[in-house]
């Protein structure tokens, strides 16, 4: 029986697998604990992984800590605004320089507390991926590591960043990491608890060189049961499209930007809760070079086309 990278053996997954299904965090369950360095804790168990943890011009972890101290989840408008900008940034680096970040996580996302503009930082693990060229699989912080990396894939794509961004989205919605694995084997266990046991075809898509396996058969946990009952279906749908075993089934960064979850950001008079305008969201340039007219039509609202002088683009509804 084949072992996963780092000595992770399928039998170990079976031993470690706990069939307890993940439960949504009760409102107010996540709180701040100064003794644990300001990390989120649920009950007495510290939960690592900070949400948008570093701010430009503000204290470390300001947005998340504010809502944790208030025993509130982050308002959806900020979840939408932050994650949209993450995907917009990924759309640029994936298409213009053709770079894969390979370590998308909350600690590598900078947010300006005044304008709420988000920037992706720390490109120390970034690389231009060349088809047919092997890459290291032991990359990306554990909670945000795509399953193909856990399965030892060395020829992966920028879709590993999409998985990581999906994990960040889920974390913002839940108030805690979705897949808090304590080791490589436990990380796979946490993913299987939610997505179920991967099929042979899914494993082939993740790593065609990994052919022998035997995992406990666990059914996928319904996405609507992962999140709170009042979670908008658009948020759940987007998470499910990002967090797919098969890398080629995950949406691209530009496709994620067009998702209905972000429609509120495209409304003509949409603003921040404090009345300030949103940071620039639609001034796309080179990243649209190979985008289809339909995608561009869904991506940039009419009012933004007029403002940016993009009248050459087909109007929405035409």
TrEMBL record:
What Pfam families does this protein's entry cite? Pkinase
Molecular function GO labels: ATP binding; protein serine/threonine kinase activity
Which Enzyme Commission number(s) are listed? Answer: 2.7.11.1
- Record field: catalytic activity: L-seryl-[protein] + ATP = O-phospho-L-seryl-[protein] + ADP + H(+); L-threonyl-[protein] + ATP = O-phospho-L-threonyl-[protein] + ADP + H(+)
Keywords associated with the record: ATP-binding, Kinase, Nucleotide-binding, Serine/threonine-protein kinase, Transferase
- Enzyme type, top EC level: transferase
Q: Which GO terms describe its biological process?
A: brassinosteroid mediated signaling pathway; cell differentiation; negative regulation of signal transduction
- Cross-referenced SUPFAM superfamilies, in alphabetical order? Protein kinase-like (PK-like)
- Return the Gene3D superfamilies for the record: Transferase(Phosphotransferase) domain 1
- Single GO cellular component term: cytoplasm
Taxonomically, which superkingdom?
Eukaryota
Record-annotated Protein kinase domain positions = 1-262
Q: Which family does it belong to?
A: Belongs to the protein kinase superfamily. CMGC Ser/Thr protein kinase family. GSK-3 subfamily.
Q: What is this protein called?
A: non-specific serine/threonine protein kinase
Gene for this protein? gb06694
């Amino acid at each position: 029986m084949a072992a996963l990278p780092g000595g992770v053996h399928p039998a170990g997954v079976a031993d470690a697998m706990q069939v307890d299904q993940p439960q949504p965090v009760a409102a107010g369950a996540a709180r701040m604990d100064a003794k644990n360095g300001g990390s989120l804790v649920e009950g007495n168990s510290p939960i690592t992984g900070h949400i948008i943890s570093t701010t430009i011009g503000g204290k470390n972890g300001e947005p998340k800590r504010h809502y944790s101290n208030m025993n509130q989840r982050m308002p959806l408008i900020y979840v939408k605004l932050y994650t949209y900008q993450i995907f917009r940034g990924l759309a640029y680096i994936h298409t213009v320089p053709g770079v894969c970040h390979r370590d998308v996580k909350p600690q590598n996302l900078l947010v300006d507390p005044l304008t709420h503009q988000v920037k992706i930082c720390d490109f120390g693990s970034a690389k231009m991926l060349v088809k047919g060229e092997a890459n290291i699989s032991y990359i990306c912080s554990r909670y945000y590591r795509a399953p193909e990396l856990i399965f030892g894939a060395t020829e992966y794509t920028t879709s590993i960043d999409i998985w990581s961004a999906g994990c960040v989205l889920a974390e913002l919605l839940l108030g805690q990491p979705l897949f808090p694995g304590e080791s490589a084997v436990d990380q796979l266990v946490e993913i299987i608890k939610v997505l179920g046991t991967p099929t042979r075809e899914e494993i082939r898509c993740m790593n065609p060189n990994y052919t022998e396996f035997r995992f406990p058969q666990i059914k996928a946990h319904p996405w609507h049961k992962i999140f709170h009952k009042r979670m908008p279906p658009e948020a759940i749908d987007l998470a499910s499209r990002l967090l797919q075993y098969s890398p080629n089934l995950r949406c691209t960064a530009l496709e994620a930007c067009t998702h209905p979850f972000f429609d509120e950001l495209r409304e003509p008079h949409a603003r921040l809760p404090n009345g300030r305008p949103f940071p620039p969201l639609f001034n796309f340039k080179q990243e649209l070079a190979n985008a289809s007219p339909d995608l561009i039509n869904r991506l940039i609202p009419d009012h933004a086309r007029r403002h940016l002088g993009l009248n050459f683009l087909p109007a929405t509804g035409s």
